[in-house]
């Protein structure tokens, strides 16, 4: 499994960016792709269109229809099965000494920028969605005007790692996040 941080251009220079923690700790599991409305990453676009990638993004009432005609609610069971298949593929690949092929796209941006990215990017609108279960409130306090129920990038990755049975990696990132928050 690979975590793809689809990063808004403004995030590259922000010292408050938490995606950098995952990139530094697990370069084999995480990669960064610069988001562009006019020049999308073709490999990522193809992965979304073929269903080989899931977009981590909450359900929104105004975006409840995917391009394939399935509503997000109707697609939930198939997305859950796809997520479980990613986990099984990762486990099988780990046993064989290979890296699994599933991708989870995480929008590395403020919530306002992330919504804009989805709204302006047709392949993200059409991508199958993965949502996080209700969890504890975010510990991230470095930016104003963020969603009260929203998580920062590193918290999303930690949650997904726990969900996908990667608890040691999640613990390592959680400790790095604690240190990051203490320093800022």
Structural class of the helices, strands and pairings?
Answer: alpha/beta
Overall shape: globular
Question: What is the element string, with H for helices and E for strands?
Answer: EHEHEHEHHEHH
Radius of gyration: 16 Å
Summarize the structure in words.
By secondary structure, this protein is of the alpha/beta class. The chain contains seven helices and five strands; from the N terminus they run βαβαβαβααβαα. It has a five-stranded parallel sheet. The longest helix is centred in the middle third of the chain and has 24 residues, at 72-95.
Describe what is shown at a glance.
The protein has 184 residues and is α/β, with parallel strands linked by helices. The chain has helices spanning 19-25, 42-50, 72-95, 111-119, 122-126, 153-163, 167-183; strands at residues 2-7, 30-34, 53-56, 103-108, 128-130. Helix 6 (153-163) runs antiparallel to helix 7 (167-183).
Which features characterize this protein?
globular, 45% helix, alpha/beta, single chain, 5-stranded parallel sheet, 7 helices, 184 residues
């Amino acid at each position: 499994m690979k975590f793809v941080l689809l990063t808004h251009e403004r995030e590259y220079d922000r010292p408050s960016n938490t995606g950098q923690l995952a990139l530094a700790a697990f370069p084999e599991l995480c990669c960064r792709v610069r988001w562009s409305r006019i020049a999308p990453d073709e490999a990522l676009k193809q992965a979304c269109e073929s269903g080989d990638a899931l977009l981590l993004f909450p359900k929104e009432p105004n975006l409840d229809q995917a391009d394939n005609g399935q509503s997000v609610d109707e697609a939930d069971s198939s997305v859950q099965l796809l997520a479980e298949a990613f986990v099984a593929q990762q486990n099988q690949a780990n046993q064989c000494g290979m890296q699994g092929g599933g991708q989870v796209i995480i929008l590395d941006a403020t919530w306002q920028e992330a919504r804009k990215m989805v709204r302006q990017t047709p392949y993200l609108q059409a991508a199958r969605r993965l949502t996080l279960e209700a969890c504890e409130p975010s510990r991230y306090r470095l930016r104003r005007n963020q969603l009260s129920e929203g998580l920062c990038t590193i918290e999303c990755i930690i949650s997904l790692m726990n969900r996908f049975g990667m608890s040691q990696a999640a613990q390592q990132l959680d400790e790095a996040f604690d240190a990051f928050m203490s320093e800022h």
